[in-house]
Write a structure and sequence with these properties.
167 residues; alpha+beta; 6-stranded mixed beta sheet; 25% helix; disordered N terminus
């Protein structure tokens, strides 16, 4: 009887897990100001399947994100999506983000972005709405490093924009 109970309990426990899906929705963005180059270097990490789904849903495409696939609609849609969902503002000026490329790390997509010609600043406004149009409970963690000091934000659908000060 114990053996049957153990087998049933194991079956129910294993069936409770969804294979291939994750139950949390999170992106992490790191923004670092480079004084020497007067630029912002940005790295954003998202789950590959989520990012692929949002691009396909938003732009009515059937894209498959894969290594080396950086041309045509893939490049165009990634660039367009990032421009709409990730915005930075310093000294009252909206900054122009330049998507540089991507790489894969297990189930994550790492996006590389840069903003050139950024004069030093004390305040930065960050908007990060990545994947909030796909998931109500999407959380976007943002770390901003300026002059060796790091500050962090938690942005979500209800509040996609916040300001940070670096006195």
């Amino acid at each position: 009887m114990k053996k049957i109970s153990l087998i049933l309990a194991s079956f129910f426990l294993l069936s409770a897990f969804k294979s291939g899906d994750h139950e949390f929705y999170l992106s992490v963005t790191e923004i670092e100001y480079n004084n020497e180059k007067q630029s912002l270097q940005i790295i954003t990490r998202v789950f590959i399947d989520d990012f692929q789904n949002v691009l396909n849903e938003r732009y009515s495409e059937d894209l498959q994100l894969s290594e080396g696939d950086e041309e045509g609609p893939v490049l165009e849609n990634i660039t367009k999506y990032l421009a709409q969902k990730l915005r930075l503002n310093t000294n009252g000026i909206e900054l122009q983000l330049n998507y540089l490329g991507k790489e894969y790390d297990a189930d994550q997509l790492i996006l590389y972005i840069e903003v050139e010609n950024v004069s030093s600043f004390n305040n930065i406004e960050v908007t990060n709405g990545i994947l909030t149009d796909l998931f109500d409970d999407q959380k976007n963690v943002v770390h901003v490093k300026v002059n060796g000091k790091t500050k962090s934000l938690l942005l979500m659908r209800q509040q996609e924009t916040e300001n940070l000060s670096f006195p």
